[in-house]
Give the backbone structure.
Amino acid sequence: MNKNIRKTGSIKIYLLLLLCLQAQELLTQNFKAEQKNYIRVRNAYQEKENVLKREFLQAGLSYPPSEVFIRIFKYERTLELWTRSMKSDSFKLFKEYKICVLSGELGPKRKQGDCQVPEGFYYVDTFNPASSFHLSMRINYPNESDRILGIKGKLGGNICIHGDCVTIGCIPITDNHIKEVYLLAIEARSSGQNKIPVHIFPARFKDGTQTLQNYSQNKKLNAFWMNLRTGYDYFEKYKKLPIIRVAKDGKYQFN
């Protein structure tokens, strides 16, 4: 009797898991379909999908990607798009995009209205197919670290990667380039990647060390950058994303 009860319970759990997986698959499929209801997204697919397929093939990458990862360097004004397939456990660089303009200076965003581009470890939390800046993807600024280290209640928000070439704290890469990044992010989301990571650094720590040394008198800022560098170095070494947590003092902790 007990064996039959355990067997019945196991079957119910299996069926429940199966239903959850089916529901998740349906949600991801619906996401892509919903995005394609917007003319700008449909146009991006018509204009860019075959181009991207060809470029992925030439780069020896699988299309569509299972996951994407965005890495941004403020000093170099560069946005890197990395991809990963189901057959690989590490990311490979697909393309670099030029950030056409940046506001503020090197250093994190700590309050509303400072015109700063954030620095730290984020993820895309909103897709906007009808953005005032063609297409946009909002990051989850302020994150937990920002809320601890920034000015309480006055942190600002709505920081996006978007088209056009204007900004007050966002990351614009022109309409032409946002079509590619946005499309690939849709494909990754549709493959089941619920959170697309976005890591934002002041500069490439290897090449931009001299640049960052200009800020050496600011011990607090340098300590923050050295904390970011731990996550940067991990990805540089392994081409895998570190597991990131935030300590009570706002510092990032890595696996």
Summary: Confidence is low (pLDDT under 50) at residues 14-24. The radius of gyration is 20 Å. The longest strand covers residues 120-131. Residues 93 and 247 are 30 Å apart (CA to CA).
